[in-house]
Amino acid sequence: xxxxxxxxxxxxxxxxxxxxxxxxxxxxxxxxxxxxxxxxxxxxxxxxxxxxxxxxxxxxxxxxxxxxxxxxxxxxxxxxxxxxxxxxxxxxxxxxxxxxxxxxxxxxxxxxxxxxxxxxxxxxxxxxxxxxxxxxxxxxxxxxxxxxxxxxxxxxxxxxxxxxxxxxxxxxxxxxxxxxxxxxxxxxxxxxxxxxxxxxxxxxxxxxxxxxxxxxxxxxxxxxxxxxxxxxxxxxxxxxxxxxxxxxxxxxxxxxxxxxxxxxxxxxxxxxxxxxxxxxxxxxxxxxxxxxxxxxxxxxxxxxxxxxxxxxxxxxxxxxxxxxxxxxxxxxxxxxxxxxxxxxxxxxxxxxxxxxxxxxxxxxxxxxxxxxxxxxxxxxxxxxxxxxxxxxxxxxxxxxxxxxxxxxxxxxxxxxxxxxxxxxxxxxx
Length: 429
Description:
Layout: H1 6-13, E1 19-21, H2 27-33, E2 39-41, E3 46-48, H3 55-58, H4 97-103, E4 112-114, H5 123-129, E5 135-138, E6 145-148, E7 151-153, E8 155-158, H6 169-182, H7 184-187, E9 191-194, H8 201-210, E10 216-220, H9 223-228, E11 230-232, E12 243-249, H10 253-257, H11 262-265, E13 270-273, H12 277-284, E14 289-292, H13 297-303, E15 309-313, H14 317-323, E16 329-331, E17 335-338, E18 343-347, H15 352-368, H16 370-377, H17 379-388, E19 394-397, H18 406-409
Parallel strand pairs: 8-9, 13-14, 17-19
Antiparallel strand pairs: 1-5, 2-5, 3-4, 6-7, 10-18, 11-18, 12-15, 12-16, 12-17
Helix pairs in contact: 6-15
């Protein structure tokens, strides 16, 4: 039998049609015995028909898995395939004539849709979906990632940025997948994929605005991003981006060991990228800053004494130490600067359905503890606490005026640790 149905799998992979209905008792065997690369078994829907229409036969409880609906072929409230006109692509090798008849809406047989979501779906969608029994689908046909009311995609694309010099892409992709999995019962399966070609950040923002190539980005929260895109206001790193650990000249460690306050630190000059948000935070706390437009130059400038320390996010600094020439430099071992600077997911403003789903999934993960479990067990986070001794460092808090709301800062399950009360209302030095 298997040899006779090889062709439809190839046709489905080539998108000659959108689904391939098979009997519940054989679909798993066929999945194991044929090349089904790129195909999945549709997980939510079941098309059921008895091959008969005699009401007495259909109601014999001891011969069926479960009773058939009364007056199966006469009940107008149940969607039936004889109400539709579903195009059929035939390979001439599979499905006996009654399958063709049902899919073409023949009156001889009747069918009904069995799915927990059927009654909540608009009539037009039910009409479209009821052609999916235990079905082998091409992954492109199994679109369940709803972007807005009228738009779906087979999977969400999270981009790679040229500017990223540390390996935390998998962290955000896996966290996004966790959020989608938390909402799968409500919205259906949706998978995340990372783009293969890194692009400059400015280009990615253009593509997100134009709804091209990508669907969602992770980015630090900035007012202009909040204006341009729809933010999903759940901090993804629990504030870790705002914990800043510095590169210094290796011989200067004893000087930094004596730093106990922000006033002590103001005797040192920081180096940062031109236009970085950190620049204004450091300067408003009395710390002088030298900037440059070229990231790689910051290491050479530090080595040459143009400034004294180069703060980086705690999750960035170790991988950057491996990626750049830091001869003569070291990761400072005593201090951590901390200011609220969350990282959010952002989507196109028109993609309201996607935003709502991702936010709901993240909040469910926070509520049931799986967010924290993921965070504290992820290798990226484990390395931060183990390699950098984050809990043993002298902690210097700074105010970030963009995130000064006490209610937001006081959400205990949102941050690595609680922020001080009135963080931005006390004297800066």
